[in-house]
Amino acid sequence: MLKEIDTSILDWAPKFMDTSNDEDQLILPASISFLELAKYVSAIANNNGGNILLGAYSEKGYGAGFQNVDAELVKKSQNILEAVELKISSHQARLQNIYLLEIEKSDSLAFADSSPYIMKNGKPKLMSERQLIEKLGLGVDSSLINMVSEQITKQSAKVDALSEELKEKSKLKNQVRGLLVGGFVGWLLSTVLNVIFNIGGQG
């Protein structure tokens, strides 16, 4: 559940920094790029939701503080986000303009620049295929994964057998292999999409 931040309390921002972590309560400097900021937002939404204090820094040996954040940075970042619910509010901290981003957990997949991210060791990382399957609710259906795996094996065997027969006709062989693989990929995609939409329909 998203942790509520009471910004009416005096010195709420320094307190936020004191309790920041690498998972759901992050502090990011004003110098971050809009793409990197969007990746963090996507990653947090794809985890369990959380908060980002933008324009804050804390470095060992250098101390902690606040930096003025350009409003364009936040706007540009928002423009490349998809399927993300967030509340953005600007605040003043020690005469610097900072932003609080409160990010809800995504019900489906949250994207930054058309790619889904997840938090790993305090950094946004591209989601793996397995994480995507689990996030889409297909991870529990091992029978589906087994069926797809069997079909790929069978199709590979067919292509291999066919290529043996057509060794002397290399051009034709390549065309047939391409058609078979293309047809199978189309069938596989439609099957997986049907499963996804059926699961969505039942929920």
Key words describing this protein structure:
2 domains; 203 residues; alpha+beta; elongated
Q: How helix-rich are the residues, as a percent range?
A: 40-55%
* Element pattern in H and E: HEHEEEHEEEEEEHHH
- Classify the fold: give the CATH topology of the largest domain: Methyltransferase, Cobalt-precorrin-4 Transmethylase, Domain 2
Mean pLDDT: 83
How much of the sequence lies in strands comes to: 15-25%
Number of strands: 10
Structural commentary:
The chain is α+β, with helices and mostly antiparallel strands. The protein has helices at about 10-20, 35-45, 70-80, 130-135, 140-165, 170-200; strands spanning about 25-30, 50-55, 55-60, 65, 80, 85-95, 95-105, 110, 115-120, 125. It has two domains: about 10-125, 2-Layer Sandwich (Methyltransferase, Cobalt-precorrin-4 Transmethylase, Domain 2), CATH 3.30.950; about 135-200. It is built from six helices and ten strands, in the order H-E-H-E-E-E-H-E-E-E-E-E-E-H-H-H. The longest helix is centred in the C-terminal third of the chain and has 33 residues, at about 170-200. The protein has a four-stranded mixed β-sheet with strand order 1-2-7-6. Strand 6 and strand 7 (about 95-105) form a beta hairpin.
Can you lay out the helices and strands and say which pair or pack?
Elements: H1 12-18, E1 25-28, H2 34-46, E2 50-54, E3 56-59, E4 63-66, H3 71-79, E5 81-82, E6 86-93, E7 96-103, E8 111-112, E9 115-120, E10 123-126, H4 129-135, H5 142-165, H6 170-202
Parallel strand pairs: 1-2
Antiparallel strand pairs: 2-7, 3-4, 5-8, 6-7, 8-9, 9-10
Domain Schlafen AlbA-2: 25-109
Coiled coil: 145-172
Pfam families: SLFN_AlbA_2 (PF04326)
